[in-house]
From TrEMBL:
Residues 9-241 form the NAD-dependent epimerase/dehydratase domain. Pfam families: Epimerase. SUPFAM superfamilies: NAD(P)-binding Rossmann-fold domains. This is NAD dependent epimerase/dehydratase family protein. PANTHER family: NAD(P)-BINDING DOMAIN-CONTAINING PROTEIN-RELATED (PTHR48079:SF6), PROTEIN YEEZ (PTHR48079). One of its GO terms (molecular function) is aldehyde dehydrogenase (NAD+) activity. It comes from the Eukaryota.
Length: 349
């Protein structure tokens, strides 16, 4: 008996997370399944670049934009799985996916799977001048599901998460999960964009300021996950969903991905040491700045959220499914030098 063809529609395949997931899946040999991928590209130039980078017979591109309802309808109708990693805050894309999946469910004979990417900024709490330190609350994706589904809409990513999580509650023949990674580290095995955001951005801001820094005291804490470990969680979720296993989905399918905690002052100190060693900073001292200065350094109002919040979680659901992350805090701090080397080779410092 030949393997069953599973058609997967990918958004964000050229990105850091999406590329890593695609790399994890595209050459995988899964008994009973044969995967075929269609990835969204914004224009012909990006489509050609992505196809040349991936260079697999089971990989194709389609040109269009997130939120294009006609295109989304076509992709949803013609695919068994949607892996959505492109823009965690794109409400138009979430609405288009919701409408397309609801329409398809009226005639579909089997469930369509949607794996959407969010982020743990959704549980982030901003440090302040009067409360600069850590927040002790730790959200478990198993024990705190009720609270997660009632996070205020003002939280980052929450408007999109709400739309995605409502889909399965409203229609049959759709199974959705939301994956929330924290600070991701490591150079991706993907195809176009291979480095992360939070730490590389902090390196750039540090170089611009010519001084390592934290937002307020830097005692605020986050979780970490290696990009390879994150991609493996998506792989596990996909196989469980394709097999029809009774795993948490819909409003219960809110999956964190983490392997420990760190404080941002530890990152700032490590960046200071690495940059000073490479003669890119005059010293290895770390100073404290306020959120507005952090925003000004990169001309990005969201920058203080990257380094000045506390976001603490426990990834219990994934571990119950057999997910075992291999890289921890030591690897994270050591990877900062790898991030610097990658940027010096591929992007201007």
């Amino acid at each position: 008996m030949s393997d069953k063809l599973i058609k997967i529609y990918f958004t964000g395949a050229s990105g850091y997370i999406g590329g890593a997931i695609l790399h994890e899946l595209i050459d995988s040999i899964e008994p009973g399944y044969k995967f075929e991928f269609t990835a969204l590209a914004r224009n012909e130039h990006k489509a050609v670049a992505l196809e040349k980078a991936v260079l697999r017979p089971n990989f194709h591109t389609v040109i269009g934009n997130l939120g294009d309802q006609e295109l989304t309808n076509k992709m949803v109708n013609n695919h068994d799985v949607i892996i959505d990693t492109a823009d965690v805050d794109n409400v138009e894309n979430a609405i288009a996916l919701s409408k397309a999946l609801k329409a398809k469910s009226k005639t579909a004979s089997k469930p369509t799977i949607l794996i959407h990417t969010s982020g743990t900024s959704v549980i982030g709490v901003m440090s302040t001048a009067t409360n600069p330190g850590p927040v002790n609350k730790v959200y478990s994706d198993l024990e705190n599901n009720f609270e997660l589904n009632r996070l205020p809409s003002q939280q980052p990513h929450r408007p999109v998460d709400e739309i995605i999580q409502e889909i399965q509650a409203q229609v049959k023949n759709v199974r959705t999960v939301v994956v929330c990674p924290p600070t991701i580290f490591g150079i991706s095995k993907g195809y176009i964009h291979r480095d992360s955001i939070q730490v590389p951005s902090l390196i750039r801001a540090t170089l611009k300021k010519k001084q390592a820094f934290t937002v307020f005291s830097g005692d605020n804490t986050w979780n970490l996950v290696h990009i390879d470990d994150l991609a493996k969680l998506y792989h596990i979720l996909l196989l469980k969903l394709l097999a029809g296993e009774d795993i948490p989905t819909g409003k219960k399918g809110y999956y964190f991905a983490e392997n420990g905690f760190f404080a941002w002052k530890e990152v700032a100190q490590r960046i200071a040491e690495v940059l000073h060693k490479h003669n890119l900073l005059p010293n290895a001292d770390v100073t404290s700045i306020e959120p507005q200065e952090a925003a000004n350094l990169l001309n990005d109002p969201f920058a203080p959220m990257l380094w000045g919040t506390t976001s603490r979680c426990k990834a219990e659901l994934g571990r119950k499914l057999g997910w075992i992350p291999a890289h921890g805090k030591k690897d994270f701090l050591n990877s900062i030098e790898d991030e610097l080397k990658y940027r010096s080779l591929h992007k201007p410092l």
